[in-house]
Every structure is written in C-alpha cells, then in structure tokens.
Design brief:
Blueprint lengths: L3 E5 L3 E2 L4 H11 L5 E5 L5 E2 L1 H17 L3 E6 L1 H10 L7 E3 L3
Parallel strand pairs: 1-3, 2-4, 3-5, 5-6
InterPro entries: MlaB_ABC_Transporter (IPR052746), STAS_dom (IPR002645), STAS_dom_sf (IPR036513)
Protein name: Anti-anti-sigma factor
Organism: Orenia marismortui
Length: 96
C-alpha cells in the first residue's frame, strides 16, 4: 500500500509565503510518502510559487516520491497552461 500525505497549500503561494511552506514540505521528505497538495484555498500564485512547485516536482522525482496537486481552481489551471507547466505538474481540478 502506498503511503500518502496531504498538505494544504496556503491562500497565497507567493514570494512572500513560499519559504515557510517549502520548509514544511522538505521536512516531510524523510517520511518517503507520496504527497498531495490540497490547493483549495489557493487564491494567488506568482512566479515564485510556480518555481517552488516545479522545483519540488524535480526533487520528488529524484526521491521516487509522487506529487499531485488537488482542487486546482480554473484560474490556476489557466496560469499553468499559459506558462506550459500543465504538461509537467500532475493536478486535478476543483469540483465547482
């Protein structure tokens, strides 16, 4: 059975908020559990937030840990598509 851990992303994943979140996620790496980021609360995501998600995806791949983003809003998905990261990140849309 695959172990999973769900973490809630903050309302804003921006240059001003990524560092505490990054530290929390990195501390969970030792558990070797697949991570699900619940994005339901995310209302604002800037370039630094997207860079963090891409960096974590790359780190997790090396560690053989899967990362999935859950409850993505339509606006966030549009941002992912605009930047081309929708092809890289595994995510599911929020049920509206």
């Amino acid at each position: 059975m695959v172990k999973e851990l769900t973490l809630e992303l903050p309302e804003e994943l921006t240059i001003f908020t990524i560092y505490p979140f990054k530290e929390e996620v990195i501390s969970k790496l030792e558990e070797k559990k697949n991570l699900i980021f619940d994005c339901y609360q995310v209302e604002r995501l800037d370039a630094a937030g997207i860079q963090l998600l891409l960096s974590l995806e790359k780190t997790f791949l090396k560690e053989k840990i899967s990362l999935k983003l859950d409850n993505i809003s339509k606006e966030i998905e549009e941002t992912f598509k605009l930047l081309g990261v929708n092809e890289i990140l595994d995510y599911e849309m929020r049920e509206e």
